[in-house]
Model the fold of this input.
Amino acid sequence: MFTNTKIDANIVFVNIFFVWGDKMEIEEYYKMLDLSNKRIRETDYTTKRFLLDKIDWRDRLICISGSRGCGKTTMLLQHIQTAFEENYEKALYVSLDHLWFATHSLSELVDMHSKNGGTHVFMDEVHYLKDWQMIIKNLYDQYPKLSIVYTGSSLLRINYESGDLSRRQVTYHLPGLSFREYLYFEGIAEIDAVDLKQLLQTHKDLAEEITPNKTILKHFADYLQRGYYPFYKEVYAGYDQRIVQITNQILESDYPAVEKINYTTVQKIKKMLFILAQSCPQTPKMSELYAQLETDRNQGLKMLYILDRANLLSILSSEKSSLKNMSRPDKIYCDNTNVMYSLTEETNVGTKRETFFLNQIKSAGYDILYPTKGDFIVDGKYLFEVGGKDKSFNQIKDIPDSYLVIDDVEIGRGNKIPLWMFGLLY
Done:
């Protein structure tokens, strides 16, 4: 009798233990679901990024990359707001840099979401998840009825050689605001994006339609200083400081999360960034720079291309370069004019013009290289010289498909196109 009672007590204890464990899992899941729903409900939908309507959200695995501050999180939450129409329990939003994941498993959370009727998982800052590619691949394979969308740093490198994710997912990149989007965010004008060929052919008619009563050049000047990052609407005097903080986050947190590097290397990369930002767009003597950073050519080039991938600097070369074929750049720019204003004490007007042009062309998805004549060659065909309103064709005369990009004018003529109009490409 005593033996049976002991056995019964053990059985009761075991049952209680497992019931308690299941209950805790459910509570933790609902805790994260409530946090997700709160973030979704509180998201502002009054302005949206161009990419929101370009993504085919029906794909079962979607990757969205981009630098900090460009609006990836807001875009995800805006999509959930409209796609799920208050039935938010079907969608789970999580940010993988949340402390919760220091002691909890993403895989178990996704499993619980699926078992409770969830159909979509939106994962932010995936680069903070160790072995993220393998985990996402496994989730994709194990839950064939689950749709997965994830965002990551622009530093994020997907292993295309293995094909594990590249053949399963659709990838998008979100840059900062174009000038066209800035005008929309400011309530000044809603303008459809134009492709480059259309802009070159119809810029005069388009400018005449847009510019009346818009003081477009004033808005353009404002955008160049504080308008590339959507958070400009949330901070005022601290805008430049916020960009510096984001720069530090990218190099001190995001990059170490993507690749194994030590503190000394991070400090060298930060030093390189501030040295180069002061000299843009001239390329300094790279050997002297490497000596100053106490590094060699190979490591120095890797650091340089990291800053390019991080969307902090923009490298311009006469031929396409990659991490496998890194070469000395012909010119180095800040990625965008807002970064230039934040990291440099003085902003050269010519550098500002070229930086804007380079950024908007690259962000719109066009290939851009450094030519033997002129400032930029786009898609291997269109040659551009950038300057003020008195700029002449002398440097690129008699070259087919050559154009002057001129600042300080609202409306161009012929092959003279206003600089601000290249902000209409996306």
Q: What stands out?
A: The two ends are 81 Å apart (CA to CA). DSSP finds 13 helices and twelve strands in the chain. The longest strand covers residues 147-152. Residues 2-173 form a domain with the Rossmann fold fold (CATH 3.40.50).
